[in-house]
Specification:
By secondary structure, the protein is α+β, with helices and mostly antiparallel strands. It has four helices and four strands. The chain has a four-stranded antiparallel sheet with strand order 1-2-3-4, with no helix packed on it. The longest helix is centred in the last third of the chain and has 41 residues, at 137-177. The radius of gyration is 25 Å and the shape is elongated.
């Protein structure tokens, strides 16, 4: 029914080796670029990407701050882009708006402006906060630690994979000579 145990294990290891080696290259690229984007000083730029931007809310009064719609309109009028190029993140044709309340309420709005649903889910709010970088310094630390761990794991995985592949090639070469 099954292949010989040794053959199965060998094929599984080989499959794991190649899938791991190929995926490691992409994981390494994602981790390095993610770390560079989070820690801009590594590229010689000031500041960092998470927590340094202002939230898109407010009444547009005081200290030159505009609400999101007015800020986008003003940027468009400067010639940086056309309003036709502006897209809004949508989910299945609905606009998703997270309120800045203590519960992280998510409001689903139809394109005609009708409120379809208001959802309060503290766990979902926490997950969204992690995903979009709203946990302040903790978010940066989590992202940095994960990126560094992935860089170390993928780097050592690639090194070990190459070492195994070289050993396999030498063993095949020895078999063919003998």
């Amino acid at each position: 029914m099954f292949l010989n145990g040794g053959v199965f294990v060998k094929k599984t290891r080989n499959l794991h080796l190649w899938i791991g080696l190929i995926c490691s290259v992409f994981l390494l690229l994602e981790a390095v670029t993610g770390l560079l984007l989070t820690e801009r000083w590594l590229m010689g730029m000031g500041g960092h990407s998470h927590g340094s931007h202002e939230h898109a809310h407010g009444d547009g009064h005081g200290h030159g701050k505009l609400n999101m719609i007015d800020a986008v309109r003003k940027a468009s009028e400067s010639g940086a882009f056309s309003m036709d190029e502006v897209g809004v993140v949508m989910n299945h044709g609905m606009y998703m708006v997270r309120l800045n309340d203590k519960d992280g309420t998510l409001v689903t709005i139809a394109p005609d402006g009708t409120v379809v649903k208001k959802e309060v889910n503290k766990f979902a709010s926490f997950v969204r906060a992690i995903h979009v970088g709203k946990l302040g310094i903790w978010n940066r630390l989590i992202i940095d630690a994960a990126a560094i761990a992935i860089i170390i794991l993928t780097g050592t995985g690639i090194y070990l994979s190459v070492k195994i592949l070289r050993a396999q090639a030498k063993a095949k070469q020895r078999k063919s000579v003998a």
